[in-house]
């Protein structure tokens, strides 16, 4: 079928000759008369920017990617349900990500608040009966975080939205917002599970994020597999690995962001280097005409307004159809290396079937379940995370297999870096690496080694990089054989300790006062103005760059600790190997403290660095 169309699988041609004929239809939103405006911020909390987390100026565009609209509806039209969406912003020169969770809804606008020009535009011809129509505008409430707690924030945003629609309350919405941001601690080793009670029937949970040796992301691998299936997942993998122009679209904005983030993660250890906007505002879609690869997600309503360039590959998450551009018709999953692809396809097929069974089971349990215990929420979260890791591990195993032995082709740096010495051909033996692969895969690897992300990968393996820990983990994955797990949850320190936080109290508010809302409009005076807790301030200072500059690590990651423990167990049986293990540990500890020592003792720095060089030569 044509792109973005669904096909009724019934041939209308009953004859023996002639082409097959099918009816195709397009899913689209019903668009009434409307005026579109550029979105802006009505209110915010905190009211002023914090040094560690300033508010990105582009947030309104991503909260309402199709624009702020004023719409004319028939009076009989029902109010649509609020829509949850997610987006990802890159800040600090693309060094950090900010994750946005948003709920969009409509509010009624009294006709007397509109200008005569607006009324005329919304009622072309001027024949409409004012009593037969209502005027409505879309609004959005959004939470920003450096952590992708999408599910938790969705529940919170829907809770405060429902508060604005339902009766009167003894505690205002503003207090719930400041309570979440100022009183709820971040999950940690000491308190791995946080439960915030919002009302007798509503609660949200936070769990300590897993310390995995992989980049943090808001990827939804279950959504990726469920919406695309195994075959189209392979097609998407090929398109990303060969840096094609990719346009992912859906009418479900939260699924769109989750799949786009997953697409950027399935290529680890590579990192997408080209323009990347998981949920692109309609005002920025001119990027689709850029003369370079991109990975962009848009609302499917974009196709009602415009058509993408002919060289763009479109991925429709609602119909599970990937449409190739005219110049890309020869791209096919058969390009991928044969044996690793067969293993990956079998694994994805198995996980796809398992995912269907889990969803059916979850649906049945939710309708019959009477277990509303706290542990049930946390156990469900744990199961979901385990399944996410299973899917991610399948792609990681594929990447580790096709890049196995790549370190043998890294070239040593024998002189001071210049333009020539940092060129990929000076850092990596591309020809020998390509020839070492299976002959039938030559075309695939010929495309991959020319991509920007492969070039960046070789540079990061040759010089100091902020991805050193993740790349060292990947090197271990390439050396592993058999069916052992590459990714798993660390259960050794798993704790069921839960911190229970009560709903906010009306402290400092007038007694016997109730709060009613006519729409979602907040009063800045009703927010609680407490200072953030000192523990959260300390965490902010650390996350804001409290490490010693140039230091590879402020502390060892869980993966490094686990690797050191495995190595120690292996060498403990031999006195000679055990002695070497202890010596290596001493050297590691000395070099870990070296950057801090140099910073604190500037006068001794030259001699210390000479000693470090002599140590490296001796090792």
UniProtKB/TrEMBL annotation:
Gene3D superfamilies from the UniProt entry: 3.30.450.200, 3.40.50.11500
All residue ranges annotated as the MABP domain in the record: 1-29
InterPro entries from the UniProt entry: cDENN_dom (IPR001194), dDENN_dom (IPR005112), DENN_C (IPR043153), DENN_Domain_GEFs (IPR051696), MABP (IPR023341), Tripartite_DENN (IPR037516), uDENN_dom (IPR005113)
Source species, domain of life: Eukaryota
Molecular-function GO term, any one: guanyl-nucleotide exchange factor activity
GO biological process, one term: regulation of Rab protein signal transduction
Pfam families assigned: dDENN, DENN, uDENN
Keywords, ordered alphabetically: Guanine-nucleotide releasing factor
Residues of the UDENN domain: 21-469
Example of a GO cellular component annotation carried by this entry: cytoplasmic vesicle
Protein name: UDENN domain-containing protein
């Amino acid at each position: 079928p044509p792109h973005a169309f669904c096909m009724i699988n019934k041939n209308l041609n009953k004859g023996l000759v002639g082409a097959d004929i099918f009816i195709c239809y397009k899913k689209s939103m019903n668009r009434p008369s409307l005026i579109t405006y550029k979105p802006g911020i009505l209110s915010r909390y905190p009211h002023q920017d914090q040094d560690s987390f300033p508010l990105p100026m582009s947030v309104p565009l991503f909260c309402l990617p199709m624009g702020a609209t004023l719409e004319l509806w028939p009076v009989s039209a029902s109010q649509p349900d609020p829509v949850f969406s997610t987006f990802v912003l890159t800040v600090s020169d693309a060094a950090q990500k900010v994750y946005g969770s948003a709920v969009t809804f409509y509010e009624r606008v009294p006709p007397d608040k509109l200008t005569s020009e607006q009324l005329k535009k919304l009622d072309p011809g001027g024949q409409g009966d004012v009593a037969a129509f209502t005027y409505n505008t879309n609004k959005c409430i959004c939470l920003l975080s450096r952590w992708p707690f999408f599910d938790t924030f969705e529940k919170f945003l829907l809770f405060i939205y429902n508060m604005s629609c339902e009766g009167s309350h003894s505690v205002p919405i503003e207090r719930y917002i400041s309570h979440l941001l100022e009183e709820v601690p971040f999950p940690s080793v000491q308190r791995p599970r946080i439960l915030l009670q919002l009302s007798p029937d509503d609660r949200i949970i936070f769990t300590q994020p897993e310390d995995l040796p992989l980049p943090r992301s808001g990827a939804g691998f279950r959504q990726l597999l469920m919406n695309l299936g195994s075959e189209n997942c392979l097609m998407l993998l090929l398109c990303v690995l060969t840096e094609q122009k990719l346009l992912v679209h859906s009418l479900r904005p939260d699924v769109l962001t989750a799949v786009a983030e997953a697409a950027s993660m399935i290529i680890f250890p590579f990192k997408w280097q080209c323009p990347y906007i998981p949920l692109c505002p309609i005002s920025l879609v001119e990027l689709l005409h850029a003369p370079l690869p991109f990975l962009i997600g848009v609302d499917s309503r974009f196709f009602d307004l415009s058509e993408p360039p002919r060289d763009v590959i479109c991925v429709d998450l609602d119909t599970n159809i990937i449409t190739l551009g005219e110049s890309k018709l020869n791209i096919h999953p058969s390009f991928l290396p044969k044996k690793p692809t067969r293993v990956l396809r079998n694994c994805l097929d198995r996980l796809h079937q398992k995912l269907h069974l889990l969803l059916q089971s979850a649906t049945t349990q939710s309708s019959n379940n009477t277990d509303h215990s706290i542990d049930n929420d946390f156990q469900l979260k744990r199961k979901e995370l385990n399944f996410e890791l299973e899917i991610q591990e399948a792609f990681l195993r594929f990447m580790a297999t096709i890049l196995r032995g790549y370190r043998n082709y890294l070239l040593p740096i024998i002189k001071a870096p210049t333009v020539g010495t940092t060129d990929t051909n000076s850092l990596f033996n591309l020809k020998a690496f390509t020839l070492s692969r299976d002959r039938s895969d030559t075309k695939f690897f010929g495309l991959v080694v020319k991509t920007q992300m492969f070039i960046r990968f070789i540079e990061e393996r040759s010089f100091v990089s902020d991805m050193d820990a993740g790349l060292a983990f990947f090197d271990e994955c390439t050396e592993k054989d058999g069916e052992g797990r590459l990714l798993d949850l660390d259960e050794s320190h798993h704790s069921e300790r839960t911190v229970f936080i009560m709903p906010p109290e009306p402290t400092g508010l007038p007694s016997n006062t109730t709060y009613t809302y006519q729409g979602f409009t907040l009063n800045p005076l009703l927010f609680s103005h407490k200072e953030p807790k000192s523990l959260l301030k300390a965490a902010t200072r650390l996350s804001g760059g409290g490490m010693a500059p140039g230091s590879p690590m402020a502390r060892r990651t869980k993966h490094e600790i686990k690797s050191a423990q495995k190595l120690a167990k292996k060498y403990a049986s031999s006195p000679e190997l055990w002695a070497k293990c202890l010596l290596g540990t001493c050297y590691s500890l000395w070099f870990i403290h070296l950057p801090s020592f140099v910073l604190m003792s500037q006068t001794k720095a030259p001699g210390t660095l000479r000693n470090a060089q002599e140590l490296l030569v001796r090792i």
